[in-house]
C-alpha cells in the first residue's frame, strides 16, 4: 500500500466517497499511518475519510477485518449517544458504517474541530478534563453491552510479548543495545505476570481507546475532545492510563487521577501497574518505529532513555512517577 501513488490514493478516496450521501468539493490527503486519511470538504461540513490500510504490519491487521472496523464505529456511535466529545461516525446510503474500495475497508467520520493539545497548552484544568473524560470512557466500556459480532483486537500478554520480540532485529543490527533490550524485557516480564494474575474482571478489563497520546486530544474553546479510535481494543484500563499519563506533566498527574477516580476504579497497587503499562506502551511504539525510516533517529535516542531512566528504576522496584505518599 505504500507504493500507491498520490493520484491512486485520491482516486480510491473518490470511489469510497461515492457510497456516502455527501457532495465533496475538495479531498485532501493527510497522512498514511495506521490508516490512509483524507480531509473531505463539502459546502457545509468537513469529514475525515479513512482507508484502513496500515503503513506497517506492526499496527495490526484488524483494519482488513470488516467486522472489527464496523465495531469501532459502533462504539463511537454509542459514545456519541452518551454525549462523549468524540467523532461522529457516518453511514453510507445503505445504512452501513463500512464500505469497500479496491479490497480495502473505508469509513467516514464528521471532522472534529479544535487544536491538537500541546505541552504548552496543558493546565490543571485540561488535566482535570482529560481525567474526567478517560474515567467516563472506562466507566462506559466496563458496563456497555457488546452487540453480536462485536470484535476488536486484544492488548493482552501475547500482544506485548510479540511487540518485545519484534525489537530483536534492531538488537542484531545495533540500533538497540542488548543491555537496553534486556532491561525493557525484564520490566515487560513483570507486567505480563500481572496481566495473567489480574484476569478480565469488568472493573479492570474492557474496551480501551488504545492510543491516548497528546496528539489525540483536541482543545476547543477550553473544552477537551478525543479523536482517533483506530487502535482501540480490549485490554486492561491501566494501559490507557500509562499512555495518557506519559503525555501529561507529572505535576498534573494527581489532578488527572483525582478526576478519573470520580468515575472509575483504581486498584490497589495501581501506581506500579500504570508505570509498567507506560513501559509496555513504549515497547509497542518502538515496534512501530522499526520500519519507519523517518523514526530511526528517534528510535536510537529514545530507547536508551526509556530503558535506563525508567525501566531500570522500575526493575529496582522504584517509582518514577509516584512518590510514597500517593
Write the layout of secondary structure elements.
Blueprint: H1 6-17, E1 26-32, E2 36-41, E3 46-51, H2 66-81, E4 99-101, E5 104-110, E6 115-116, H3 124-143, E7 154-155, H4 157-166, H5 168-172, H6 178-198, E8 205-208, E9 217-220, E10 223-226, E11 233-236, H7 237-245, H8 253-260, H9 270-289, H10 296-315
Parallel strand pairs: 7-11
Antiparallel strand pairs: 1-2, 2-3, 3-5, 4-5, 6-9, 8-11, 9-10
Helix pairs in contact: 3-8, 4-6, 4-9, 6-9, 6-10, 7-9, 9-10
What key phrases describe this protein's structure?
326 residues, alpha+beta, Phosphorylase Kinase, domain 1, Aminoglycoside 3'-phosphotransferase, Chain: A, domain 2, 2 domains, 3-stranded antiparallel sheet, 43% helix
Describe the protein.
The chain is of the alpha+beta class and 326 residues long. It contains ten helices and eleven strands. It folds into two domains: 6-111, Phosphorylase Kinase, domain 1; 116-315, Alpha-Beta Complex (Aminoglycoside 3'-phosphotransferase, Chain: A, domain 2). The chain has helices spanning 6-17, 66-81, 124-143, 157-166, 168-172, 178-198, 237-245, 253-260, 270-289, 296-315, and strands at residues 26-32, 36-41, 46-51, 99-101, 104-110, 115-116, 154-155, 205-208, 217-220, 223-226, 233-236. The protein has a five-stranded antiparallel sheet. The chain has a three-stranded antiparallel sheet with strand order 6-9-10, covered by helices on one side. A hairpin with a 4-residue loop joins β2 (36-41) and β3. α4 crosses α9 (270-289). The termini are far apart.
Amino acid at each position: 500500500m505504500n507504493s500507491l501513488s498520490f493520484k491512486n490514493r485520491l482516486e480510491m478516496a473518490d470511489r469510497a466517497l461515492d457510497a456516502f450521501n455527501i457532495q465533496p468539493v475538495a479531498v485532501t490527503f493527510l497522512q498514511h499511518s495506521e490508516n490512509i486519511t483524507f480531509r473531505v470538504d463539502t459546502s457545509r461540513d468537513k469529514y475525515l475519510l479513512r482507508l484502513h490500510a496500515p503503513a506497517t504490519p506492526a499496527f495490526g491487521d484488524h483494519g482488513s477485518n470488516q467486522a472489527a472496523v464496523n465495531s469501532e464505529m459502533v462504539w463511537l456511535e454509542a459514545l456519541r449517544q452518551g454525549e462523549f466529545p468524540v467523532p461522529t461516525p457516518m453511514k453510507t446510503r445503505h445504512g452501513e458504517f463500512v464500505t469497500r474500495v479496491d479490497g480495502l475497508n473505508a469509513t467516514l467520520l464528521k471532522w472534529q474541530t479544535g487544536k491538537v493539545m500541546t505541552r504548552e497548552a496543558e493546565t490543571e484544568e485540561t488535566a482535570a478534563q482529560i481525567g474526567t473524560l478517560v474515567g467516563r470512557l472506562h466507566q462506559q466500556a466496563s458496563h456497555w453491552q457488546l452487540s453480536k459480532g462485536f470484535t476488536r483486537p486484544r492488548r493482552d500478554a501475547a500482544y506485548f510479548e510479540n511487540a518485545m520480540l519484534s525489537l530483536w532485529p534492531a538488537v542484531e543490527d545495533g540500533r538497540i543495545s542488548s543491555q537496553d533490550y534486556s532491561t525493557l524485557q525484564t520490566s515487560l516480564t513483570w507486567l505480563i505476570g500481572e496481566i495473567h494474575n489480574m484476569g478480565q474482571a469488568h472493573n479492570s478489563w474492557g474496551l480501551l481507546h488504545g492510543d491516548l497520546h497528546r496528539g489525540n486530544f483536541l482543545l476547543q474553546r477550553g473544552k477537551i475532545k478525543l479523536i482517533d479510535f483506530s487502535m482501540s481494543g480490549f485490554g486492561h484500563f491501566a494501559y490507557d492510563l500509562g499512555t495518557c499519563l506519559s503525555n501529561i506533566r507529572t505535576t498534573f498527574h494527581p489532578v488527572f487521577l483525582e478526576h478519573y477516580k470520580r468515575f472509575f476504579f483504581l486498584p490497589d497497587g495501581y501506581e506500579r501497574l500504570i508505570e509498567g503499562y507506560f513501559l509496555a506502551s513504549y515497547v509497542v511504539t518502538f515496534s512501530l518505529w522499526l520500519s519507519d525510516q523517518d523514526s530511526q533517529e528517534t528510535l536510537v535516542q529514545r530507547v536508551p532513555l526509556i530503558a535506563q531512566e525508567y525501566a531500570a528504576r522500575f526493575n529496582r522496584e522504584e517509582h518514577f512517577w509516584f512518590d510514597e505518599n500517593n
